[in-house]
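# nightly structure sweep
# worker-07 picked up a monomer target from the shared queue
# config: single-sequence mode, recycle default, output format = structure tokens
# input follows
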Amino acid sequence: MERAVLDRAVDVPDPVTVRMGTVEELRRLGVRVPPPQYPLVWDPGDTVRLRRRGDLAARAAILGVLLATHDGLPRRQAMRWLRDARLLERVTPREWRFIAGGVGDAALIDLERDALHGLAWLLGLVDDLDPRLPRSPYLAGLLPDPRTPGEEYPAWRATVPRDGRDPVEAAVLLDLYYCLDWAYQEADRRREDPPGAVPPVAIGARRWALEWAVVLTGRYHEDPAGWEDVDLSV
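# output follows
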């Protein structure tokens, strides 16, 4: 199962100031602003860090294999690649059931393409996570390809940029996507069109990646959740 091994923590900026910036950005995007009592993501005095780059890369590679299986990669080939990459222990039970036996909701698996886009941004493989724009069409080409003989996980890991995202930058973006998820879901509830080409489910999937990768520590934060345990209900 997944291990939560984390990078060095730094202080987070004032949450109220960050939320004011988020609200300004929401208005610029033309989406609904959450009510004043909508919870802040962190409290003054908390710290933030990102999952270690090895953990981010492993999760991205696993999602890449999961989605490749969804798109027709032979299951034995997928399992062999994960075994050779020594990633089997990081695959969740739900993912393994789909990869090994095709058991599970293929539509839910397909939604994780935007979660993968979020991980790619955290790894520095893509330049932005603009909520107005769909995910990069070149995303699959940025990941190791299990179909290509000799394309091994360690060799791909060596190509991942060493300079990761600043944890504060990632936390600020998490606050934006936290509020965007509410705004898009509220618009969907009211049967209003989304403001851009990205549907509400994609916004939620990107938030999923950020919620998992951005680890906040403080009085009111619990231990980091596993990939399948990220709570997007609030």
